[in-house]
Amino acid sequence: MVHGTLDTIQPHESWNCPTAGCQTTAPITTAPFPKPAMENRCVNLDRNELSEWVEHITKQLIDDLPESSATDAAFQTTATSSEDNFVPSISGDHLRPRKIMRRSCFDANGEDMIQWSNELQTHTDNNIIGRSSSIALSKLDEQGLNLITLLLECAVAISVDNLGEAHRMLLELTQMASPYGQSCAERVVAYFAKAMASRVINSWLGMCSPLVNYKNIHCAFQVFNNISPFIKFAHFTSNQAILEAFHGRDRVHIVDLDIMQGLQWPALFHILATRMEGPPHVRMTGFGASIELLMETGKQLSNFAKRLGISFEFQPIARKAGDVDVSALQVRRGETVAVHWLQHSLYDATGPDWKTMRLIEELSPRIVTLIEQDVSHNEGSFLDRFVGSLHYYSTLFDSLGAYLGSEEPNRYRVEHCLLYREINNILAIGGPARSGEDKFRDWSSELEKRLVQVPMSGNSMAQAQLILNMFPPAHGYSLVHGDGILRLGWKDTSLYTASAWTTSSHVSR
């Protein structure tokens, strides 16, 4: 074990999950993991994966769509890439075909130009097989290919406000795909179709936002934490950076911009309690939407800190961070402040990003830890968001499907209560800016303008690797450390990034 790292993972990340609205059929445990149900895996890892399909299909789809006439704008494609990720993207600003048909495209005279769906599958098969002789499409793959192709056609129809045609396709999709399906393709299409149906309804009736059941979300979040390394990666890499920033400090103040159940903090408390110089006095400010849930989280954390002999104070703030003044946090002289922000698309947790950034600057924290989903879903057109999120969530569904069987209730709970909600918020409600508040395209780039990056240390990398070691390597999780940032993904697609920042006033200390 690396000296000075958070070396206690198993017992400190589980609270008693509220049972209201989210009953569990099996006990939630961190380790050991249940044996994967190989016969139910949605993707044969020796063949092809849903996320690979999405990349090939979206690229081929755009190649096969005909150019429009001079009076009609053309379909254009762009490719957005990151260091560890490639996501094909469609620039929808000029998408204006005269008519969208499910099985063929028409020119300005209405004549059938090309049965592009059939050619799409042929070209996609050729591209996949040509790249690797070990990749082929089974009957189940072909069904998934047809589902995703129809889903893409529906997205094009929605992007040009052809809601009648989109509605017809959605009726067909809802009959063909189920969130309980054995294939990842079917499950992904079912949730995307449901989100797109909500978008069509919103377009007809006006903007509407779904109600948020925070107990359900928090419970599913805890399940996700226990069956996948992504949340643990976020928690333990951030905790390691905070631990290093708190070295030698006797009064610390942690500000969590969306604390939920506080699953992250017991592990940090445990290592702080074992410091040679003794534990510091810990004060925590937790932001959240429900004062009742915040009080319950504070009670759990207080009890845990008391058992460890840590002096602890908890301050709940049932508002968004962007809506409060720095005085509400009551920072005291001599406190070392750490700010933590685990981003997600489940709901708008912080309000206007520029106000949240202003609050962070006024706090002058010694460390800011940021966990981001590695997907650009709040910029560009609907098609930009659709293609980017389809690739991203296909990869997430792949990672769950490679580990848990199609009938595993915990897998369904995560897909339904978390991943679907994010998909719906991104596509149906307009992305992270769905509340009408201004949102940054990339938090890291904004922090870079105002703060100084603190490279994630070797100990943070060790923490992430320790977490991945709990999962068999064959399951395909990948970890990259570059440019001071840690990236965790599935195969070659980066899904979550962890970074740390500080204010210039702390750099020379």
Automatic annotation (TrEMBL):
Residues 221-286 are annotated as: VHIID. The lineage of its organism: Eukaryota, Viridiplantae, Streptophyta, Embryophyta, Tracheophyta. GO terms for cellular component: nucleus. InterPro entries: TF_GRAS. Residues 296-328 are annotated as: Leucine repeat II (LRII). Its main location: nucleus. It comes from Rhamnella rubrinervis. The keyword ATP-binding does not apply. Belongs to the GRAS family. It is found in: Nucleus. This is Protein SCARECROW-like. Keywords: Nucleus, Transcription, Transcription regulation. The keyword Transcription regulation applies. A motif (VHIID) lies at residues 252-256. Residues 428-502 are annotated as: SAW.
